[in-house]
Design brief:
By secondary structure, this protein is mainly alpha-helical. The protein is built from 6 helices and 3 strands, in the order αβααββααα. The protein has helices spanning 8-20, 25-36, 40-52, 69-85, 89-97, 104-119; strands at residues 23-24, 56-59, 62-65. The protein has a 3-stranded antiparallel β-sheet. The radius of gyration is 19 Å and the shape is elongated. The two termini are 25 Å apart.
Amino acid sequence: MVVYVMTEAEMQMAEIIWESEPLPSGELVKLAAEKLGWKKSTTYTVLRKICENEIFQNQDAVVTALMSREEYIRQKGERYLEENYGGSLPGFVAAFLQTKKLSKKEVEELEKMIEDYKEN
């Protein structure tokens, strides 16, 4: 499955849903008005878009996630790697390290992650 990459506005709504689901759609309209200053029509337009892309669903006027925030972020990261580095994590890390210096703690954390991965 290729994950749809949400726009900034869609991501703002997604965060509200993930924080509060299951969420009656009327309550989502109220929360979007309070937190984002959105009108009802804007809320329903954005909701329709993220439901079309199978990240959320609005069934019987109750909005729920079809994908957790963590799963969405993971799939978005995999898509980014595939599109920009041919799916190569080492290629991404090499490009990243050209402009970023890792702290000793970050290096240790990465080493531990790799060791844990090898053990499993």
